[in-house]
Amino acid sequence: MTALADAALTIAAETGEEPAGIDLFLPADYDILWSAVVLLIIAAVFYKAVLPKFQAVLDERTAKIEGGLAKAESAQAEAAAALAEYHQQLQEARTEAAKIREDARAEGSAIIADLRVKASDDAARIVETAHRQIEAERQQASVSLRNDVGLLATELASKIVGESLADSARQSRVVDRFLDELEAAGTAAASAAGTASEER
Predict the structure, then answer these.
(1) What CA–CA distance (Å, rounded) separates 118 from 120?
(2) Could you tell me if residue 97 is inside a domain?
(3) 162: phi then psi, degrees, rounded to nearest 5
(4) Is this prediction's pTM over 0.70?
(5) Buried residues in 132-153 as b, exposed as e (16+ CB within 10 A)
(6) Cβ atoms of 111 and 140 closer than 8 Å
(7) Domain span at residue 135?
(8) I need a labelling partner for 173 at 20 to 30 A (CA). Which of 61, 70, 134, 146 fits?
């Protein structure tokens, strides 16, 4: 190939013409002109028809991306706000639960104290009522016994004396005297028994 180029240069030098190899790399002027015209037409068509469509697609994609970023940022801000609100509500719930627990403990202690007071009051009332009932029953038994003993004593005295003790005043005196003597004898016997137990 170089031998051919050397031969062409040699022939051209002998004939006095410019070598043809240099013109091979430079096109003719009319080719440059028509190529420039075609390039300008393609550029104008591209600039007027194709480039706006590309620009519209790129603008739409940019808007979608920016909208997506804005939505993501707003969603992230909402999530952060919701998380902060959740933590605040959780803290308030814990505080309220602790307060309710303390109130319940205090109220429970107060109720237990009231129940203890009421129970002791109820127990005292029950004991007092039992004492009153026992005393009333003792009094009733004493009256009943006094009447029964008086009736028996009157009958016995009537049989011993041989006369009727129909007079109620007389009958009452005899009964009272008899019961007093019985009580005095019972008291003397109890004190004698107490003295005997002390001497032992």
Answers:
(1) 5
(2) yes
(3) 90, 5
(4) no
(5) eeeeeeeeeeeeeeeeeebeeb
(6) no
(7) 22-189
(8) 134
